[in-house]
Fold each of these.
Amino acid sequence: MADRQREPPVIEVREEVTVPSAPDAVWLVLSDPYQAVSCIPGASLTGRDEDGAYEGRIDVRFGPTSIAFKAKGTFETDDAECRGTVRSRARDGKGGTKVQADGSFQVVPAATGSSIVVVANVDVTGPLASLVESGTAIVVRKMVSDFTTRLAEKLAPGERVATEPPAKRAWWQRLLALLGLARKPLVRR
């Protein structure tokens, strides 16, 4: 009789938040991986690998327990639709817990600024899987709340977003593409 391994549950994340800024301003931040990640508490990008994937870290708190993950992922955007996808893999440094997340986000106009719609599927395996699974809803709500607060602060009047305007960005994107360093555009199927 063959051993059966437990299939990891897929955790579905569906969130929509509103920030009091115009969609173009919100998109300038969210379409830049470094700017977007700076809005996530405990997260940072540390560079890119030879294939262009982003490398980073994220420290996640589950009550009194903090888990540090090393992560790698891809980030693709569709500027015309203000939509993007993120695919990431992470592993904690101590216990071997692995997380795989695939998600999308889109910025849309709202009555009071912009709404950001996020949809993701997260698979968790390893020793801390049950802890992560049981606390995910609470942790996601807290992280989304903190992200929204930081994004709104970054976009507040008087704050300068360190991103070029769209015309200038297009020129830089072409240059980065020639050098093989550009983000991959979102592929429609």
Amino acid sequence: MLGRRCPRNYTYTGYETDKLIANFKDSHYKNGAQRWNSNSRIPFEDMLTDWMELDLISETVLKESLVVREREDEESMKEYITARDSYETAKAQMPTQVFKLYQIHLTKAEHDQVNRDGHDSVHKQALKLDMNLRKNDTGAIAKEAFDLGYYTHVSNITAKDYEDVFEVGNIGPEENIERISDMYSCSVGDIVEDEAGNKKVVASMGFKDVA
């Protein structure tokens, strides 16, 4: 489903034309749909529509890609449900540990700059948007943002594993969350660190190593 157009540049993704063209060059057409080079997944409708309006893809390719994406998402959901059922059985036997949750937050000044000059004018916002929209190399993008100090340690979450952290970070229980700073619901681009120091980033599907 399409979101709202960015009021500054009138694109759905909020990207400027040069960024959209660069992203398009990182994609290819295969098996009836436009796909990312890195993982062969189909971009969100926002990205595809921006590409179409720049005449980078046709309306036919847009529509075909959305149909294929819906079918592949349904297949992925079936696989996820099967895996989840097995996971829930194993989860009951897992010990709990305390995970650190890191998120990217913008200051008021940075929000104002994004609204005035666009997403790419604030580097950490550009990286955050890349993780949400491009779905390319999420782990590498997260590592770059973490190394640059863009993440804030917002909470400690008591959970059994990374998937459990995501669940607690969205629906609780609240007693399992020790809030250290402002925290929004756990979402794509957030980094979770276990007690051994291993970091994973929330991706569009599951988690990826921060590396």
Amino acid sequence: MRGGSGGPQPIPLMPYDAEWPIAFASLEREVRGIVGAEMVAIDHIGSTAVPGLCAKPKLDAVVVMASRTAVVEAAAALAAAGYLDHGDVHSNGLWLLTCLPGRYRVRRRLYACVVGTPAHEARLVFRDRLRTRPDAAAAYAALKRRLAVEFAGDVDGYTRAKGAFVEKLIRGAGALRYSAAALGA
């Protein structure tokens, strides 16, 4: 995307929106209806799951299933419902599904995994650290704002550049087995 000056636009970050938890609750109901009884949990992750944190305007959620077979079946059911199935793009046990832009007010990105998947556990650790450590959330917000400009037009570079912060916060929580690379960050 190019701006009036012809240069790339910064990564879009929005101030926290109190509608995000409501949008997640709607997503949760929808997904439960699609994937059924094999779903163990659905977790709201990413910056929209952290009150007060700026975020790209998209919901990230992990659909936790009882077995690998259930993950494959859930991905097929979600694809039939209009999600695009990208498979395990980071080879970390998280199956990626996205929704076409414009279908919902807030974009959606789902991951599906088996209970106990380390990459999912690491994402929960990171989310929970940001929720309980205002200093970490403020530092992360400042980093995101700086990188949104520095990596204008390069979402992958923006995500990679956050990796060291993500890994440090996870490791600081005592979750030493996780790395930013395993998270896909």
Amino acid sequence: MAKVIVQPCGDSEAKSNFVNTIEKKVSKEHVLSFLNEIQKNKLQTFPDAMVPIWGVTSGSNNINKNKWDTIHNGDIVLLYKENIFFQKAEIFQKFISNELATDLWGKKKDGSTWECIYILNNLEKINYKIEDYNSLLGYKEKFKVFGFNVHTKEQSKILLENFNILSEQGILNEVDTEEDNQTFERLVLNSTSSERNTLTYIRKEQATLRKLLINKRENVECYLCGEVFPKNSVSCAHIKPRKACTDDEKCDPYVVMLACRFGCDELYERKIITVTDNGVIQLNKGITITPGIVKATKDLVNKKCFKFESKSIEYFRWHRNN
């Protein structure tokens, strides 16, 4: 399950940083100049030329860095100021860079900088009051958020379900290991039309589809590149976006595939690569092809999917044409 991160940005310094690097964003090319090759390959898949970016200091005795170390791509960030959570976003990438932080935000009076960096995606305005947050988590009524914090899985689950802040893609990337091992058919028969619109049902549906694909294996192949990864390193990715599927299609095991989180999942989701009716991976002709995209896709383009099912052709076709 995605974790919820609380990021205050209400003091004068933070407000200025927010405007400069989240609101106005930063050139992706500029950020790339500070990264190593692995970091560059990930950022090259970011869909836009301008990048929302934030950072936190390591803090006394690494208190912030130890929290920052626990966050992962896909976790949810809630930005907070003046008693309101006013914006949410998803973690796209994280890395340590003292040089980039100093370039973007300078240094504090004590010489430290905000080197624990994360790049954001899918920013969205929200309006949740601190009183509701406190009530949900059992905090004192007058509790205020003063520092960067990463919530536990239990706290995150409460916030995700009650604030309705998890994007559909975030829901689809979740794996609920506590789900009962029900068969796919029984899940569909026991569901109602109203359940299909709830977070609980979506999570349950996704967990069942994932179990069908993984089939109790500890290591699985990515359907696109064919490389073998531990099961927690692959996503159960929708070939056709779930929001575009009919109710019957949402329950079709051929509407999903296993895609590795080391490039293939992101490249497919962002429509940088598509799949032909013959199962051949191609670059999307409708996008601008940059050198970074060529580098990130060189081992995939014009190769046949490692695993390709004819029953998935219509879903791949929808992905190409929409």
